[in-house]
Amino acid sequence: MLLILTLACTTSGDVPDTAITDSASDGLRTLDNCAASFAADVPAFYTTYFRCVDVSMDGDEVVIGTNDLPPHPSSYYPESDPNWEAWDDRGGEYTQNPNSIASQAFVLRIPAAPVAKGLTITDALVDLTMMTSDEEYPAGTIGVALDGVSLYNATAAPGDDIRDEQYGFDVWEAHPSPDSAYHHHSPNPAGLAVLVAAGFATTTAPGAAEVELFGIICDGTVVLGCTELDGTEVVSADLDAQGGHLGDLRDADGTTHFAGRYHTHMCTAIDEDAFTPEIQYYGSCEVAGVGP
């Protein structure tokens, strides 16, 4: 398979409603005005939960296109952009990196029926360090968040530590790469803002929302937070070393979107190292990209 590839925040991690659904009158890019399209045959999972993306079917693959521009303010937008806001160092703990956000042209192709590689994902595999296993997802964009922003794996660039790099995330828990691709590695209010706008949650504070879903990875792995898709509690004893397990993804109205699908949980209440998956559970996840 081939992958061609703002915010004021309270101390609780929640975001104000105006950061989610402001109008376009002042030029802001928001969840209300970011462009999106869904073909008639696209599975309900995507039409229900995703915004700011173009989704279609190509045979047995779901094809998601995105420009990777976050539909909320960020200090990583250029200062000339309407979505720019001043950096919040959160008491001096956080330092802005030198990169900035620019439009991308990513296409994610997701198999409708992914095939497992047969891995048992152990602590030895999940070391949060890039290029220590052939089972890792590649560097760069490997998935797409509910708002069209890139998801990266749980590692930093060689020589860096993701536990340190997270102190360069903006208040939406994301940052841009040197090639200007804005992306998440961790639980974040941005994905939850989509759920709030859609009526599935009432807070954007990770760990406190009624339902926590963040996005999907190119091999078909779904990334959730501290709940299952229907809002029920996660059974932490069932999780592997990266917070993953197999199970039906069923929402609160009883719709089963995926049966027996591998999915991971980013939840600091379960694991303080709550990041996107590092190890690829399903088959091929080849990546190519088109930058600014």
Q: How many helix segments?
A: 4
Number of strands: 14
Secondary structure category: mainly beta
Q: Note the run of SSEs as H and E.
A: EHEHEEEEEHEEHEEEEE
- Main pleated sheet: 8 strands, mixed
Relevant terms:
single chain, 292 residues, mainly beta, eight-stranded mixed sheet, four-stranded mixed sheet, 4 helices, 21% strand, disordered N terminus
Summarize the structure.
The chain is mainly beta and 292 residues long. The protein is built from four helices and 14 strands.
What's the topology here?
Elements: E1 2-4, H1 18-21, E2 37-38, H2 44-49, E3 54-58, E4 61-66, E5 106-111, E6 143-145, E7 150-151, H3 162-165, E8 174-176, E9 182-184, H4 189-198, E10 213-217, E11 222-224, E12 244-250, E13 256-265, E14 286-288
Parallel strand pairs: 1-14, 2-3, 7-9, 11-13
Antiparallel strand pairs: 3-4, 4-5, 6-7, 6-10, 8-9, 10-11, 12-13
Explain this structure.
With 292 residues, the chain is mostly beta strands. It has one domain. The chain has helices spanning 18-21, 44-49, 162-165, 189-198, and strands spanning 2-4, 37-38, 54-58, 61-66, 106-111, 143-145, 150-151, 174-176, 182-184, 213-217, 222-224, 244-250, 256-265, 286-288. The model is unreliable at 1-12 and 16-25 (pLDDT under 50).
